[in-house]
Amino acid sequence: MRLTCGLLLLLCLFPAPSPSQITFERTYGGSGDDVGYAVQQTRDLGYVIAGSTDSFGASYKDVYIIKTDSSGDIQWTRIYGGSGSDEAHSVMETHDGGYVITGWTSSFDAYGFDVYLLRTDSSGDTLWTRTYGGIGWSDWDGGNCVQETQGGGYIVAGITLSIGENSYDVYLIRTDSVGNILWTNTFGGVSFQDGYAVQETQDGGYIIVGLTDSYGSGQTDIYLIKTDGEGVTSIEGTHRTSSLPKTLNLAQNFPNPFNPMTTIAFDIPDAPREAHRVSLAVYDLRGRLVRRLVDSDLMPGSHRVAWDGKDEAGRKVSSGIYLYTLKAGVVSLTRKMVAVK
């Protein structure tokens, strides 16, 4: 059974409560498969539910968020995602009354699944979305728990197949207040690991719990990890620290050629560890600007941006060869990509 953030299993030998003891019961959904994975009480004494829906939305499965009052009556619902499969496994009300949500998505990756992080206002309207993980056929990354941190950012715990050196590892991601990666780390042995919940501790570090079948005495065992504020643990052999890039790198977009969407990955170097002014833009072969994808301060680390093949005016570009250029300080890198129809 999959445990997600905020889910508490109580094994009890006492009889189930009689109907008169139940305050209320509610069901939500439509004619398809609809699932709730996480629930939190909100400051207005209502509830916010995160899960997935096959009844509503544009694809087989979309992120499904339901906000209710204190009696469980719906105040609003929201659907997020794309043409692939999208799920939410954790939701938290933020300090400003909005919501942060994590799960996984295949809508914004060419072949696999990525960690999906969404930030909304108090009405559930999207402020920004981010995806994290690898690029390729073996890409399987997902978020199981998100928490707002004291520093104003977010900490996400989940699973990765594409980032670590082993098979499936615990995946820990620390972001700033708008979802830019500050650092990532993976934990585990040669077999299977997954991270289900994370909390910031009083010393500014993090405590993560999940499962492992690389260590312990059984088929799978509870896996508890304590880190410092940089996501590092000093226990030798049970962790790997993700080093920050030393140089500016620009990867080949994937897929290439592409239609209708492609992803561009790049690394910002750790020299020094502070925000860099970064520009990423697409040009035609005559050097004319087609689309500016990034123009902001980014922290050192690995970043990814999706391009939907549209220009600055929202028009679909023609088939052909395009250039994309990454600039950070005085250094710039350029690669070619091909759009097809």
Kindly list the characteristics that best describe this protein:
341 residues, mainly beta, Neuraminidase, Immunoglobulin-like, 2 domains, five-stranded antiparallel beta sheet, four-stranded antiparallel beta sheet, 0% helix, globular
**Quaternary class:** single chain
The count of domains is 2
Number of distinct helices: 0
| Strand tally | 23
Elements, N to C (H/E): EEEEEEEEEEEEEEEEEEEEEEE
Classify the helix fraction into a percent range.
under 10%
Distance between the termini: 43 Å
Beta-strand percent range: over 45%
According to CATH, the fold-level topology of the largest domain is Neuraminidase
> Can you summarize the main beta sheet?
5 strands, antiparallel
* CATH architecture group name of the largest domain: 6 Propeller
Q: What low-confidence regions span 5 or more consecutive residues with pLDDT below 50? A: 7-14, 236-242
CATH structural class of the largest domain: Mainly Beta
Mean pLDDT: 85
Kindly name the structural category.
mainly beta
Indicate the radius of gyration in whole angstroms: 21 Å
Shape descriptor reads globular
Please list the strands of the largest sheet in the order they lie side by side. Answer: 9-10-11-12-16
